[in-house]
Structure formats: C-alpha cells, structure tokens
Amino acid sequence: MSASPRIAVMGAAGRMGRTLVAAAEQQADARLAAGIVAEGSSLVGADLGELAGLGKLGVVATTSLEKVADEFDVLIDFTNPATTLANLAFCAAHDKRIVIGTTGLDDAQLAELDGFRDRVAMVFAPNMSVGVNLTLNLLKTAAAALGDEGYDIEVIEAHHRHKVDAPSGTALKMGDVVAESLGRTLKEHGVFAREGQCGPRSEKEIGFATVRAGDIVGEHTVMFATEGERIEITHKASSRMTFARGAVRAARWVAEREAGRYDMQDVLGLN
Ligand SMILES: NC(=O)C1=CN([C@@H]2O[C@H](COP(=O)(O)OP(=O)(O)OC[C@H]3O[C@@H](n4cnc5c(N)ncnc54)[C@H](OP(=O)(O)O)[C@@H]3O)[C@@H](O)[C@H]2O)C=CC1
Ligand SMILES: O=C(O)C1=N[C@H](C(=O)O)C[C@H](O)C1
After folding, report:
1. Regarding the domain with residue range 6-124+240-268, which homologous superfamily does it belong to in the CATH classification?
2. How far, in Å, from the CA of 1 to the mean position of ligand 2?
3. Which of 64, 170, 186, 266 is deepest in the core (most CB within 10 A)?
4. What is the pTM of this model?
C-alpha cells in the first residue's frame, strides 16, 4: 500500500466527521477520498470541504460504502456501535483497514468487534489524542505507586450535552488501566452510581462520576485521595482536532499493518 493512504470518513457530517475531513485534508501523507453520511440525510451530494468549513474540495458526501469501495484504503469511523460493527464486516469482506473511535459498545458488541481481529487491520481506541494516551501511562505509574497505600480512586469526566454514552469510553479505559495495575477489575470494583443511603465507600472500589453540559469537548480526571492529600491527573481537550489528528495518524499507521486489533498506544509506540 502507498505511504499516503486514501481515507474515507464515515459519518462525515457529524461533530467528529467534519473535524476528520479537515484533519485528513490538512495533514500531509493522507488523502481524503470519500465521506459517507446516513441514509436519507439532506447532505447527500454536499461537498465535504464545505461541510467542514474549508470551501469546496471536490469530494462529495455519499450514502454507502459500496459506492466508494474502489476509492479508499482506510475507513475512519466515529459513529455509533451498530454502524461501526456493520462497517467492520464491510472492511473484512473488501480488504480495507479501519480506524474506530466509536465508544459505548456493550460487552456483546465488544466481543463481536474482537471477532474481526484475524480478518481486519483495525485501530480501536476510545481516545485518539496523544495527551490522553500519555496520561494512560502516567496512570499506570500512579496506580502502581499509590493504589495499595490507602488511596481512594475516582474517575470524573465531563462532556458536551449531545454525548449519548456514559461514562465516556476514555473514563472506562482510564479506570481499566488503573484497575489492571492493581489486580482489580471494573466488573467487580467499578461503582457507576451513588444515590441515597448508599453507605460509606469500600476500600477497593473505583468510582465514576459523569458531567454532561454545554459544549465541553472532553475532560477527564483520575483522583487518588487519602487522608492528608489528594493527587489528580487531568486531561482537558479544548478542540476535537486533537482526536482527529490522532485518527489520521492511526490511518497512516494501520495502512501498513497486517490484520490485527491495535490501539493508539501501538500507533504512538507507547506500549
Ligand atoms: N476515540 C476518540 O478519540 C473520540 C471518540 N468519539 C466518539 O465518536 C462517536 C461520534 O461522536 P460525535 O461525532 O460527537 O457524534 P455525532 O452524532 O456528531 O456524529 C455521528 C455521525 O455519524 C452519522 N451516522 C450514524 N449512522 C450512520 C450510518 N449508518 N451511515 C453514515 N453515517 C452515520 C450520524 O448521522 P445522523 O446524525 O444523520 O444520524 C452523525 O453525523 C461517539 O461514539 C464518540 O464517543 C468522539 C470524539 C473522540
Ligand atoms: O463523545 C465525545 O465527544 C468524546 N468521546 C470519547 C469518549 O467517550 O471517551 C472521547 C472524547 O473524550 C470525546
């Protein structure tokens, strides 16, 4: 495959879709080849550059991957779980690579996604920003040093009012990384809601709190708190471009890979 993969953006009219179009267009070593919008959308035929606020690019929105199957090498998909799984099946059948940013997959959907690992080269990560992926490594270090020393661990996240899944995929990943460092699991130790007479906190639980408000792009804090001190590791995204640039970087990286399930830590060499 060429070093400059042809990129198709699924959900090209969405918040991330429009940003991905701009990122693919602006970054060297990637070419925007196609954009797909939902069936029945009034934006079918619209110029992707105009949707992204860049002016005409000469690539128009279409409604199906079949129509552009010969025009792209890597699909970037930030949509919803059902759409993403259907697109994975398409990529497996048509020898395409895929970068998946979609969050909110349940256990059955995650198992289905994983079932494609031998047939599709995919990068799947709940957060494509370099900062968050570096933060995951800081969390491993912090958890290993503090977790068994009586520090309570809480994950707090805030996002815009339109977000449909909670906690965010990034918050779950952060919780997972911390839990794994401590030999715990979120299935056993994750606490996702507290209300009423819920009793005092248990020692090993990992709590999650969610804020949904206004236009917050994405903020995550992991708190390690004990009597006398509190450590907070925080990442704040102020522009979706940080996720989009990471996704285009992942597309360039996965274009050269064999079938397998990779994440942004692989792309960034942080593993
Ligand atoms: N990994 C990461 O770094 C990040 C991940 N995300 C995740 O990305 C996902 C999308 O977020 P966001 O952009 O804010 O959401 P949006 O709702 O703005 O965008 C999703 C887009 O997908 C479109 N879509 C849905 N189904 C189809 C389909 N079958 N064919 C074509 N297009 C379709 C929607 O169209 P319509 O509205 O017409 O249905 C919409 O335009 C979420 O899961 C979010 O959590 C977000 C930011 C960063
Ligand atoms: O929906 C969003 O906007 C975001 N979703 C991702 C998640 O669920 O972690 C990543 C980012 O924080 C923005």
Report:
1. NAD(P)-binding Rossmann-like Domain (3.40.50.720)
2. 30
3. 170
4. 0.98
